[in-house]
Amino acid sequence: METKPLSMLNLLLETHIGLKRQGPGSSEVVEQALGFLKPLNQFLRIADLGCGTGGQTICLAQHLPGMITGLDMFPDFIEKLNENVKSMNLENRVTGIVGSMENLPFQKNSLDLIWSEGAIDNIGFEEGISHWHDFLKKGGFVAVTCPSWLTRERPTAVDQFWSAAGSRLDGVSTNIEIMQRCGYQFIASFTLPEQCWTENYFIPREAAINRLSKKYAGNETMIAYEEQNRYESELYSKYKQYYGYVFYIGRTI
Ligand SMILES: C[S@@+](CC[C@H](N)C(=O)[O-])C[C@H]1O[C@@H](n2cnc3c(N)ncnc32)[C@H](O)[C@@H]1O
User: Fold this and answer.
1) Is 227 exposed, middle or buried (0-12, 13-18, 19+ CB in 10 A)?
2) Is residue 50 a contact partner of residue 119, using CB atoms and an 8 Å limit?
3) Ligand 1 within 6 A of 119 CB?
4) CATH class for domain 24-195+242-252?
5) Domain boundaries in the chain?
6) Would you say the CB of residue 50 lies under 6 angstroms from ligand 1?
7) Cα–Cα distance between 23 and 196 in angstroms, integer?
8) Of 12, 65, 91, 200, which has the most beta carbons under 10 Å away?
9) Which of 18, 243, 37, 16 is nearest to 144 (CA)?
10) Is the pTM of the predicted complex or chain greater than 0.90?
11) Is 128 in the pocket of ligand 1 (CB under 6 A)?
């Protein structure tokens, strides 16, 4: 029987499908960000963009009364989200759909809240924030995390890594300025704590990669993939004072 060659994308999906989160974050941070959105009972239509398998989507459903749509480009992640939603009896309030953050399938002026963790940098902070604006009602909120520079000094190794991954880092003040330029009132921003990266993401990811490494022992793509992931963790450990995920919360005016 012919077996398909392994690709980096297959490995990325196989690594992440069983993880609670597909990027840095935590339920405590979700709650901290929600603290800026009171009163929570006004949030009836919510979209969680780049939701992955929906760790934060489920957390949102536990705190907000409304209907939540999780959207992601990978059907496998959405299938997993919908399985989890069903097992928690949340299917009357939470739905996962496959789609693109760059071409939202919602009606204009229909959403009370757009949430997005660890995903907007894939399309660019400004592109995302400006495209999403029109789907929010007047006075609707956006709450997104984005990898950002935390200092004026910007190590080249970090810049090169994120650029090669198809992303880019901007300073916090630049992103706040972009929000304001795109028609939002700036509400708050805060940096995610280190454990969001380490305990909640790198450590479970490493365990999943170790399992795959045994499954695909000796495969060249697997070796390159493992090395790439190890480099990302080492880079963070070395330069974490310079960059991190930042939550940005804004409101349409
Ligand atoms: C780092 S993961 C974060 C997942 C999840 N929000 C979390 O924090 O655990 C980024 C997610 O964005 C999704 N994504 C990237 N680009 C996308 C796009 N253009 N449209 C929809 N989803 C996208 C990926 O499939 C992935 O699930």
Assistant:
1) exposed
2) yes
3) yes
4) alpha beta
5) 24-195+242-252
6) yes
7) 8
8) 200
9) 37
10) yes
11) no
